[in-house]
Design a protein that fits this description.
This protein is α+β, with helices and mostly antiparallel strands. 52% of the residues lie in helices and 8% in strands. The structure holds glutathione (GSH).
Length: 216
């Protein structure tokens, strides 16, 4: 069955799918669209008009974590644990990453010191759960890479892309999370899953929101 992934270049929900397909060495075609200027064929195909979507033959899969679940079934090398409870735990922790993406964008969009502090407090509260999980295992839900880690990896490509303009240490007080991010960056397929000018695109996207931290 042919796989065609429709994505945008800086979308973390999309990059997690690209990364997982590359890691599992599953052949696919990748179509980038400009999310600010969605083509009609995409609006017709995507129920929420969001990326990513994955065409599997004539079927259209949406929601990145569901897409990850599906592509994980396409090879014998599963990225999920064997035990059903552990699978559910893995999925729950992957779902938690969705919340982190939302708050991270809010931190990077906050226009005043007050809004920035508020969103950072929220982000640190979410990070504290990650830190606790990472006290138990090397990765987010196991001592080996699992599907949940592929959900997190593109979150932690956004932060290094902004390192030249960030005047605060987002991982301050979270040593295990900092080490985890380094471990994610060691996934061999991560770099090839990003477009060549990814850092510049992320910087442009965030700068256009005129966030508080950028001006400091
Ligand atoms: N829950 C969705 C979120 C996807 C999402 O928010 N995609 C963003 C780009 S990163 C998008 O298409 N935004 C356009 C919009 O919401 O109008 C998933 O995990 O796939």
């Amino acid at each position: 069955m042919s796989l065609v992934l429709v994505a945008s270049k800086t979308c973390p929900h999309c990059i997690r799918v690209v990364l997982t397909l590359n890691h599992l060495k599953i052949p696919y075609e990748l179509k980038y669209i400009d999310i600010e200027n969605r083509p009609d064929w995409f609006i017709k195909a995507s129920p929420l008009e969001r990326v990513p979507i994955l065409f599997v033959g004539d079927a259209v899969l949406f929601e990145s974590l569901v897409i990850l679940d599906y592509i994980n079934t396409l090879t014998p090398q599963s990225l999920l644990p064997k035990d059903n409870l552990q699978i559910a735990l893995n999925r729950a922790r992957a779902e938690f990453s969705q919340e982190i993406i939302e708050i991270l964008w809010s931190v990077f969009s906050a226009k005043t010191l007050e809004a920035f502090d508020l969103q950072m407090k929220e982000l640190r509260w979410l990070f504290s759960s990650l830190e606790t999980w990472l006290q138990q295992t090397k990765f987010i839900s196991d001592n080996v890479l699992t599907l949940a880690d592929f959900a997190y990896a593109p979150i932690f490509t956004i932060i290094p892309a902004l390192k030249q303009v960030m005047n605060f240490d987002i991982f301050d007080g979270f040593p295990r999370l900092r080490a985890y991010v380094d471990n994610l960056h060691a996934i061999p397929e991560l770099k090839m899953s990003l477009v060549e000018n990814y850092d510049q695109l992320i910087q442009k996207k965030i700068q256009s929101r005129e966030p508080y931290f950028w001006k400091q």
